[in-house]
Amino acid sequence: MQISEKMPANELKASVSLASIYGLRMLGMFLILPIFSIYATQYQGGNNSMLVGAALGAYGLTQALFQLPFGMASDKFGRKKIIYIGLLMLVVGSAIAALATDITTVILGRAIQGAGAVSAAVTALLADLTREENRTKAMAMIGATIGVTFAVSLVLGPTLAHWAGIAGIFWLTAVLATLAVLVVKFVVPNPIASHFHSDASAAPTKLKEVLKNTQLLRLNYGIFALHTAQMAMFIVVPFAIQKTSSLDVNHHWQVYLPILLGSFMLMMPAIIVGEKRNLLKPVFIGAVALMLLSQLCFAGLIGSFWGILFSLFAYFVAFNILEASLPSLITKLAPAAAKGTAMGVYNTAQSLGVAMGGLVGGYLAHHYSYSVVFMFCAVLMSIWLLLTFSMKTPPSVKTKMYHLEETSEARANELTKTISALPYVHEAVAIAKESILIVKIKNQSVWDEQEIFGIIGSK
Questions:
Q1: CATH number among 2.60.40.740, 2.60.120.280, 1.20.1250.20, 3.30.9.10, domain 205-395
Q2: Of 258, 333, 416, 452, which one is least surrounded by beta carbons within 10 A?
Q3: How confident is the model over 391-405, as a mean pLDDT?
Q4: What is the pTM of this model?
């Protein structure tokens, strides 16, 4: 028997406002993706694809370096203080890029943008402001916001660049970051207390366990490869569309919009089938195979407009499935007490992929050809495909979290043992320091939440 509750108004307000922080920040970062490689030719040195790639990928490198430290610093110095610092760095970096006249200064601005890596601090603040039983819903809001923001940016980016130029988009990013500061100050509630959350924050003591987990390493490699290919693609495809069609860059949204809508229509049934029928592994392998196919098609058909359209459609179908599946797989496969650490490593791998895609994609496009860029990405996808075959079938589980009254280590160990033995439980862990019980439910048809409440309340 399950008990469902609506999210209280204060928690809903916190979730929506913090999701908007992600959205405002990422919109500014994503808007330049579909148009930057073409507009970069306006800068001194902007005809060098290697430097253009460095500008696109620079924020990923600094984000990877600062993401986990910012999250840990928020545990010590306060969530909002760290978020303010990160957002102000985004404002400064955006202003530097907006005022730049050469590509090297743009690289500097993008690097400073990425250094304001507030994602972990925002997630930790969200955990402070939501009860355990509502935190999964709150995190899902953030994930959905990021996905929608990326799709919107591909459509809006070319139009905004036509109106305001690339400098205008950087100024818009600064404005959006400033607006995000105001949202944090005046809309996001102040937490009653801040403390470490295993499900939302990275713990240095758990890093070794996570880095030794070969199942998680497969997923970390996957998100690295996925975002390497994404960034490399945006160095090449805008030029290829322009060269093979009558569309200038300001109208490229006419290409992206129908492809994105069509890919979403195919993505949703695949995700539903994978989750509901416990077919997540075959769906996942199929999506990686489709991503490999898209890279090979790009390599062979990059000189044909219709070939580019076909390749883009295959790419976005695969990308959407994988981008939605990977966080779910991390949650299913990570040890319950190390989910936050596993997600921190995963997000760092994603940022490193952004940096690698920009740097290597730009280098290969500059010294070789567009096709070589995609052959490089195809090699990465081939390795990933081989790794997926040895991936364990992810358990069909639902994670639930429960608040515990102040309890001792001995009592927490007793609860862990008792609840882990229940027939519908895949894994359970009670953490005394955080007053939390994390349970992975494997058989929801016989799941009795009242029984769990009874055990929690028993002496």
A1: 1.20.1250.20
A2: 258
A3: 88
A4: 0.93
